[in-house]
Amino acid sequence: MDENLSDEDREKLRLENEIRKIKMELEKGAKFIEDPDMPSLPPEIENEFLNYIEQFEKMHADSKPVSIYDSIGQPPFPKAEELQDTELSEQLDKLYELLNEHQIVVESVHEVDDREMYRFITEDLFKHEVFMIEKLPGMMTHFTYEEFYPDDVKDVIVHMEEFFDAFFDLSDDENLYEQSVSDTGGNQWLHEFRASYYKLDVHSVSVNEVQIHEGDPVTASCVFDLAMDAYTEGKTEKHIYNGSGRAALDYTSGGWMIQSIELPKAI
Questions:
Q1: How far apart are CA 250 and CA 133, in angstroms?
Q2: DSSP symbol at 149
Q3: Beta strands 219-231 and 141-144: pairing type?
Q4: Which residues pair with 255 in a beta bridge?
Q5: Number of neighbouring beta carbons within 10 Å of residue 72
Q6: What is the pLDDT of residues 44-91, one digit of tens each?
Q7: Any idea which architecture 152-262 has in CATH?
Q8: Which of 21, 26, 86, 233 lies 20 to 30 Å from 35, alpha-carbon distance?
């Protein structure tokens, strides 16, 4: 793509890109979401991106499903129960290397021990069917353990831990904790809480109980323990938070979001 385009040619290319995106949305159900806070891509870069998408779609349409095991050449491998602990890590590394050679990445969101990961790859992932396409340079296919074995309880715990890390960090002027909290949950008091303190000295905070409630939407409730000293401006007052708190969460298309949260009462 020629990057030395005139302003007129660049505008024509921009209009061409818009027409192509509208066509993809109507014919393929594609979604192009633009962030108003981010600068737009140069039209020549966006054009290359659209070419990439169309090329991928064509390869996908012309391909047939095949198991991952077949796609990587049906390599011989020992079963998980046949391996000693000392052999397992080496065999798992060989699997990772082989999969990477075929542009496949296997990861986990939460910690999974080596034996279970090896079993997962050889017994579950190998049977999984994908479309056999000629992959473009740099293109990787990603799989996570949790796609096959989701763990809502662990997901809620991680979400709460990320919230606590951001919420109790008063030096965070960007209020990153808001990314964990629904803006419809009536949690304005969280801003007021942070604004009322000069320093938060967190001794410990941990989620000790999670319940998942099936429904539409799926919701969760959790209980957490908090031990914290909170100081007002100039350390003129010290409030002690020591006890159990509660939170309610909803599962959305973007993951878990805190709908409401209640800290233990200060003494």
A1: 37
A2: S
A3: unpaired
A4: 252
A5: 15
A6: 888 888 887 777 666 666 667 889 999 999 999 999 999 999 999 999
A7: Roll (3.10)
A8: 26
Q: How far apart are CA 203 and CA 166, in angstroms?
A: 15
Judged by phi (left if over 0) then psi (alpha if -120 to 50, else beta), residue 243 lies in: left
> At 169, is the secondary structure helix, strand, or coil?
coil
> Distance (Å, rounded) from C-alpha 201 to C-alpha 262?
18
Determine if the peptide bond prior to 65 is cis (ω within 30°).
Answer: no
Domain boundaries, the chain: 7-61, 65-148, 152-262
Find tokens 């949260």 and name the residue: 261
CA distance linking residue 93 with residue 196, whole number of Å: 51
Cβ–Cβ < 8 Å for 167, 99:
no
Q: CA angle, corner 105, sides to 102 and 108, nearest 5? A: 160
Query: Residue 148's closest CA among 174, 176, 97, 110?
Result: 110
Tokens of 178: 């808001």
